[in-house]
Amino acid sequence: MKKFISLLILVVAAVWSFRSMMPTDHGDIDTPTEKFSTDRALLHVKAISQKPHYVGSAAHAEVREYIINQFEKLGLKTEVQEGYTLDSYGNLAKPKNILTRIKGSENGKALLLLTHYDSDPHSSLGASDAGSGVATILEGVRAYLAQGVTSKNDIIILITDAEELGLNGAELFVNKHPWAKDIGLVLNFEARGSGGPSYMLIETNGGNAKIIKGFKEANPEFPVSNSLAYSIYKMLPNDTDLTIFREDGNIDGFNLAFIDDHYDYHTVNDNYENLDRNTLEHQGSYLIPLMDYFANANLSDVKTSVDDDYNYFNSALGFFIYPFTWIFPMLILAFVLFIAVIAYGIKNQRMTVANIFKGFIPFLCALLVSALLCHFGWQLMLKLYPNYQDIQHGFTYNGHTYIWFVVMLSLAITFWCYKKFMKIEHVASYAVAPIFLWLVINTGFALALKGASFFIIPVYFALLMLFVFIRQKEPSIVALSLVAIPILLIIAPFIKMFPVGLGLKILSVSAVFTILTFGLLLPVVGRYRRKKTFAWVFAVLALFFFLKAHFNAGYDEQHQKPNSLVYTLNADDNTATWSSYDNVLDSWTLNFIKEDQNDIADLNKNVVDSKYGTGYNYASKAPIKAIAQPKIDITKDTIVNNARHIELCIAPQRFVNRIELFADANTRFNTFSVNGQTVAKDADKDMVLAYRWDSRILSYYMADQEPLELRFSVPVDQKTTITLHEASYDLLENEQFTVPARESDMIPKPFVLNDAIVVKKTIQIE
Predict the structure, then answer these.
(1) Model-wide pTM > 0.90
(2) Best CATH choice for the domain 24-314 from the list 3.20.10.10, 3.40.630.10, 3.80.10.10, 3.20.20.140
(3) 137, 362, 550, 714: most buried by Cβ count inside 10 Å?
């Protein structure tokens, strides 16, 4: 009975670790006016996400007007900032930002509330990304104003445009708006899925000490964050609006973003119905306390040196922080306690050196077998289920089931290994190996990834369990299970977090975390006598989840197959092609693509749009259609100082959504500007555009159907060839085509140019 209670405690603790991360209910329409109401916020989400509202679409302007009207209803005067920007990746756009400002009582630095209102081109409805952010801010500001208080600091509200294209709206604001210099801190609301807890990530050029202390003092009800994510995030090239504030304005801030149900991201399924209501409540639970706190804090004093960082992590027991300077003392103390516990165990004849070394056999066996099985098993799944590769997010509709499968399989293997290699009377000796490996891992963290050093805390609880186990002849397994609760509360969420955040390709990380956690719990789980039974139970559960994943591997009306179709007219030789990025053709694409006609080499020389480097997989000949070609005029061609100076105008003769320009790597540009935006020279080159990606010079996203005005100079003896791709997103609506609507179990594939009519044309300057 005691062992059953022990098992129940561990299960409840694991469940609690997840349930405590976010609200389990949300505020309704009758919530008091001075409080945040999710149901009121949802009214905004519903209004914003009626149609795809990418830059240049009719719905884009409608959403902008809706947001402006909502601010005006609150008595706030708005302005629209617009202008061309060209980002470092060559994305040219003309964003139209929405701004308003609530005056504070003092003249200190302002707090900025930030999100964006454009959806991803061309099919995403943008309910979560970032309709949820707009709704959170609108409802949060309404509740704040209803309180009738005046904060010390001004509160600036910025709803940017063209975030999905290249953070262009943020760049326009930070570099060209006078309010940018007034900002002391940013709260940015984002989404990369349609559900799950919202994670807090810090963006700073310096240390996090002061702002993480402020975050803790603000005391949001469900703080979900950890310094491991912070440390990894700082090492990566980030791509939210807040990145521009940090890089161009040296302004710190918080990203507050949810990432689960990642398969909905940037698709038509990012809709009102799929947005998790409790997730939206979680966003609101951040905004209100953080706004109350930082709108009255000294935002001129949030900067710290780059070395002034804190470790931090959340658990069901609270949000904990401590400085990096504690890392090595805590690590050294853990090693000292580790040696002391071993010495105490050997002295009391509860451990032997031989059994300590034998303890590495089952632990490392379980760790290696599980990690390798899960890593190569997922590679096998991609071959057995090739349709998975059409979900470019890397997280399939049945992805959560695969996580469960990996956890169950890992536990089955681990119980089997300990049944095979360990006797129950040697539990204390065998518990040393996992703790030692955790100490080695934490040493690596202390040296190379300091933000992960909070994992030393579960080690302390494991040492405490082992000490009690050694000290008492018959230690209470229930008491030891209670001591084990913090271990599960801290570590268990990471088993799910990594594959959800980074994709199923790292399912092996879930296996590793499962077994590492099991190892720390060995003074408890090692005493369960029927390990073979446990192994079989978890094996059966693993089989159940695998079969569940298998039977849900296909597509249906709730879990649709992403597919793609592009029509390309080559204006140079008057040929046309149907093409698709899909790995598996379906009944819709087979109307146009023939599997035995697959000449994709030329098409993949210059892929117009592909976030994940996806090229066309199939292509077939298509009928020639009378698509209006762009008008290309060379308005100036002069030679000055041994360089040829060209002015070139590209004017579409039809409604166009984007223009892409390519030139091979051997083409040299001495200078280059477009629509008034000048490309800076590369630091180690005497030319521009030297490091262009995949030969791409420029991506122009058209907001107002304005022509492309190019000015550039090239060597006088260079024959310059520029390849133009002019794309519109109207393949299904264009009267010249008879493309049927997709079937109910299909959706447009995201992250690629899709449902598009492309005109390809070569511009030759000899």
Answers:
(1) yes
(2) 3.40.630.10
(3) 137
